[in-house]
Design goal:
Elements lengths: L6 H4 L3 H9 L17 H15 L9 H11 L36 H15 L6 H12 L15 H10 L3 E3 L7 E3 L5 H4 L10 H13 L5 E5 L3 H4 L8 E6 L6 E9 L5 E5 L8 E2 L4 H6 L4 E9 L5
Antiparallel strand pairs: 1-8, 2-3, 3-8, 4-5, 4-8, 5-6, 6-7
Helix pairs in contact: 3-5, 4-5, 5-6
């Protein structure tokens, strides 16, 4: 169950949250091995996939979002650990010019890796015996542009691009437009304008690549449901919809990612790995309350996960 979140918790400096999101400790690599029962990460994959199957959630008749949030429930209490995807880099950016390793974990999360892991476990449960290799493939195709891991710049660092790229490949559907989302056309330049905050950007070639990515996103406005309209459309947001919390911070699209979650009484809350609180949890605040309390929040992006296997 969740623990109470104070208003002070919710009003944490958005810049710090942004850094945690965009700057997501060596973790298990992707291998072809079957789930190993003595390894905590592998054991969780087997246990959680088995739970989904036993509960009838590992099939297309159930929404992928519902299956993913069930995984999130099973992950409750797991610690929040930031910067997990950057651990292979030296402080001076060494390693950024080589291939990026596929970092995986089911025993520690930041906000984005929780979303990816829950969706990946759900998709893995729908096939044969769960393996770490299959789990890794599912994470990889969500985390990287076009599903191809080709280095640091191929990772979908801006979460609005994570949504757009996933929609192009049938992994999610952007429901922002049908919820009355308003186009946010501000240019995204946060990473290149805060170069010193990203070790990889010490490498000039990687810095140029990220700059090119940012400029390409100018053609992709984000559809943001404004904070003051969330309550109006809350009944159209489903358990398991992926939420991205839009921000007014210059050059940045969102500061946090999570799942929409309806509790037993049908109240819409947030299932996430928060910077404040430190563990995977369901908020006590409702979704509208939670967004309203975030400093500089402008609304939410909403994407509905799909079972599609492209």
């Amino acid at each position: 169950m969740s623990t109470p979140l104070s208003r002070r918790d919710l009003l944490k400096d958005a810049a710090a949250i942004a850094a945690a999101l965009l700057l997501p400790v060596p973790l298990p690599a992707c291998t072809g091995e079957a789930v190993h029962p003595s390894d905590p990460d592998h054991r969780r994959l087997g246990d959680w996939a088995g739970a989904l199957r036993a509960e009838g959630l590992a099939r297309s008749e159930t929404t992928l979002g519902r299956a993913a949030t069930r995984v999130g429930e099973l992950a409750a209490g797991t610690p929040y650990v930031p910067h997990t995807l950057e651990a292979y880099l030296g402080a001076d950016g060494a390693g950024a010019d080589r291939g990026e390793p596929l970092t995986l974990s089911l025993t520690r999360f930041d906000c984005v890796t929780l979303v990816e892991a829950c969706l990946a476990v759900a998709r893995t449960a729908g096939g044969g015996a769960p393996s770490w290799e299959r789990f890794g493939r599912e994470v990889e195709r969500m985390r990287y542009r076009g599903g191809r891991r080709e280095g640091y710049a191929s990772r979908l660092h801006y979460f609005s691009e994570w949504i757009a790229d996933g929609e192009e490949r049938g992994l999610v559907r952007d429901v922002g437009p049908e919820l009355g989302g308003i186009a946010d056309e501000r240019p995204l330049r946060f990473m290149t304008e805060h170069r010193s905050s990203y070790a990889a950007l010490a490498n000039d070639e990687v810095f140029r690549e990220i700059g090119a990515v940012e400029r390409s996103l100018d053609r992709r406005p984000r559809r943001v449901v404004p904070t003051d309209r969330i309550a109006e459309v809350a009944d159209r947001i489903e358990t398991g919809d992926v939420l991205a919390f839009a921000t007014g911070i210059p050059g940045l699209d969102v500061t946090h990612a999570a799942f929409a979650y309806r509790d037993a009484g049908g109240v819409l809350r947030v299932l996430h790995a928060p910077l404040s609180g430190g563990v995977v949890e369901v908020t006590r605040a409702t979704l509208p309350e939670y967004v309203a309390a975030i400093r500089r929040a402008t609304g939410i992006l909403v994407a509905r996960p799909e079972w599609a296997n492209k």
